[in-house]
Amino acid sequence: MGMSVTISAAAEQDAEQIFRLQYLCFQSEAALYGNYRIDPLVQSLDSVREEVAADLVFVARLGDEIVGSVHGRSTEDAAAAIGKLCVHPRLQGHGIGARLLRVAEAALADERGARTFRLHTGHRSESNLQLYSRVGYQRVGTSEGADGVPQIVLEKSAGTAETYAATA
């Protein structure tokens, strides 16, 4: 009998597994851009610990193994920033990323009062762009990451998130 993936809030003791998972998952993004200085690859373990303590961080677990994670935080403009969505390469394409997004959006709306969700992804990251479009995000602009990678900025309103959650 197989185990099912569960999603829950990250705890302090999850930081090291999240740190390792991010490093594994973002290798393909780094290769896509020829840039191994992207934030999830150069972030320190202490910084991940700080995010788990301060932000809304959720993990997907398969038994005791963390196989996915996502970070969410409030921003100054009353929106919520969602980032560092990652799913273990062996489990990608099974809806775990979409589930993590839904949980993060719901918590950010309920606990932090977010009415808009915003995320960034690299301009060449087609699978990310497809996922975000599928769950209701729309392109609203571009930016450049601190690492120099051109980014596409996507947003959706909390009302869109509720509609998607009800139909997913």
Give an account of the 3D structure.
With 168 residues, this protein is α+β, with helices and mostly antiparallel strands. Helix content is 40%, strand content 32%. It contains 7 helices and 7 strands, in the order βααααβββαβαββα. The protein has helices spanning 15-25, 27-33, 39-42, 45-54, 96-112, 126-134, 158-167; strands at residues 5-9, 56-62, 65-74, 79-87, 116-122, 138-144, 150-157. It has a 7-stranded mixed β-sheet, with helices on both faces. A hairpin with a 5-residue loop joins β6 (138-144) and β7 (150-157). The longest helix has 17 residues, at 96-112. It is globular, with a radius of gyration of 15 Å. It starts with a strand and ends with a helix.
Key descriptive features of the protein:
single chain; 168 residues; alpha+beta; seven-stranded mixed beta sheet; 7 strands; 40% helix; 32% strand; globular
SSE topology sketch:
Elements: E1 5-9, H1 15-25, H2 27-33, H3 39-42, H4 45-54, E2 56-62, E3 65-74, E4 79-87, H5 96-112, E5 116-122, H6 126-134, E6 138-144, E7 150-157, H7 158-167
Parallel strand pairs: 4-5
Antiparallel strand pairs: 1-2, 2-3, 3-4, 5-7, 6-7
Task: Write a brief structural summary.
By secondary structure, the chain is an alpha+beta fold. The chain contains seven helices and seven strands; from the N terminus they run E-H-H-H-H-E-E-E-H-E-H-E-E-H.
